[in-house]
Design goal:
single chain; alpha+beta; Butyryl-Coa Dehydrogenase, subunit A, domain 1; Butyryl-CoA Dehydrogenase, subunit A, domain 2; Butyryl-CoA Dehydrogenase, subunit A, domain 3; 3 domains; four-stranded mixed β-sheet; four-stranded antiparallel β-sheet; 11 helices; globular; binds flavin-adenine dinucleotide
Length: 381
């Protein structure tokens, strides 16, 4: 079905080497200490991973979504939490590249591509998660400025020293058409943050509320036209969903690799675990399910790259299937380590904790079913 091109294979080799050397050895410690490794992400950026599908006139790598999927899969083998944040950063950079004007692109993208600035995507609010079009953060025009007031919830990467926010806020009436997209730069008066949330996984990246209290930004920070914000936010998520699914594949592959190594060492009843056919079949099933997820992911990424009319539906299908499968494969791999799978030291429970949230964010897997069902039902009408 797929033969990755030689270029994509070379990109995968580069990303896997980076992941094995720079992420994997530290992932457990970052998780435990809740350390956000900005310095390491900047190293990834020197290899082109800060603007993977940003155009090259501003320093981007200009790669395809299939290349990106392969990169995020590779990074996630080392640490799903760091890989997933780099994915969100790339989504924001792409939104500026695609919908920003040339002044905005040249002003912001070079520092985003280098990850000198780390971007956050601000859509969710305390009262508007799945129903994002109900968001209530206001953006009121005041001469050459907009004044933002409201709160965003669960914002990945927020509250860092060199931060950059892509914010969806209501500049018009109710519903999706009243929403616009703005850039709020770190340090703007009126911008503040909640505490770093304590959470099940993804501990190597902060999650905070982002609060706008009469936060005054130049009118020139509007991205695209007033009223385009919801469309811009959703088109960013098409790619974000591919990437998050890729992070599930990479994390699950790391878990399966650990299970393969462990069952080749551990003995019970006088034999190595991998000599029991029941466990050989379990390993085989995990590998089969993971490969099905990977192929589905690559196929959805190729659909994006071709610009298929139904790409959003295909991506929603893949995000639902791949993130559910990734979690189940990692959890199944944990079982093969017995009690040791449950201990932090073996790195397995961290993968399971990290992958769990992929079923919830960038649109929950229920919302993915909603997108698919809408498309199916539309065909019957
Ligand atoms: C660690 C973490 C990081 C995050 N990072 C970001 C970020 O960087 N930026 C950002 O904007 N957001 C972020 N989010 C928010 C995330 O996208 C939302 O949590 C998610 O979209 C769900 O919204 P909610 O939590 O309000 O749940 P709700 O929308 O309240 O949903 C609750 C439950 O009801 C289900 N449900 C809701 N509506 C329907 C329906 N119509 N049909 C069937 N089921 C339905 C949902 O699937 C879910 O199971 C993050 C979340 C987490 C946990």
């Amino acid at each position: 079905m797929f033969r990755l091109s030689d270029d994509t294979l070379a990109i995968r080799e580069m990303a896997q080497a980076f992941s094995a050397e720079k992420l994997a050895p530290h992932a457990l410690e970052w998780d435990e200490k809740k350390h956000f490794p900005v310095d390491v992400m900047r190293e990834a950026a020197t290899l082109g991973m800060g603007g993977i599908y940003v155009k090259d006139d501003v320093g981007g790598s200009g790669l395809s979504r299939l290349d990106a999927a392969v990169i995020f899969e590779s990074l996630s083998r080392g640490c799903p939490a760091v890989a997933a944040y780099i994915s969100i950063h790339n989504m924001c950079a792409w939104m500026i590249d695609t919908y920003g004007n040339d002044t905005q692109r040249h002003k912001w993208l070079p520092s985003l591509v280098a990850m000198e600035k780390c971007a956050s995507y601000c859509l969710t609010e305390p009262g508007a998660g799945s129903d994002a079009a109900a968001l209530s953060t206001r953006a009121v025009k005041d001469g050459d400025f907009y004044v933002l007031t409201g709160q965003k919830q669960f914002i990945s990467g927020a509250g860092n020293a060199d931060d950059f926010y892509v914010v969806m806020a209501r500049s018009g009436g109710e519903g999706p058409k009243g929403i616009s997209t703005f850039v709020v730069e770190g340090g703007t008066p009126g911008l503040s943050f909640g505490a770093n949330e304590r959470k099940m996984g993804w501990n190597a990246q902060p999650t905070r509320a982002v609060i706008f209290d009469n936060c005054r930004i130049p009118a020139a920070n509007l991205i695209g036209k007033e009223g385009d914000g919801f469309k811009i936010a959703m088109s960013g998520l098409d790619g974000g969903r591919l990437n998050i699914a890729a992070c599930s594949v990479g994390g699950a592959q790391a878990a399966l690799d650990k299970a393969l190594a462990y069952t080749n060492e551990r003995k019970a009843f006088g034999k190595k675990l991998n000599e029991f056919q029941a466990l050989q079949f379990r390993l085989a099933d995990l590998a089969i399910e993971l490969e099905a997820a990977r192929v589905f992911l690559y196929s959805a990424a190729a659909s994006y790259d071709r610009g298929d009319a139904d790409k959003t539906t295909r991506i929603a299908m893949a995000k639902r299937f791949v993130t559910d499968t990734g979690f189940e494969v990692a959890n199944g791999a944990l079982q093969l380590l017995g009690g040791y799978g449950y201990l932090s030291e073996y790195g397995m429970e961290k993968i399971v904790r990290d992958l769990r949230v992929h079923q919830i964010l960038e649109g929950t897997n229920e919302i993915m079913r909603l997108i698919v069902a809408r498309a199916l039902l539309a065909e019957t009408r």
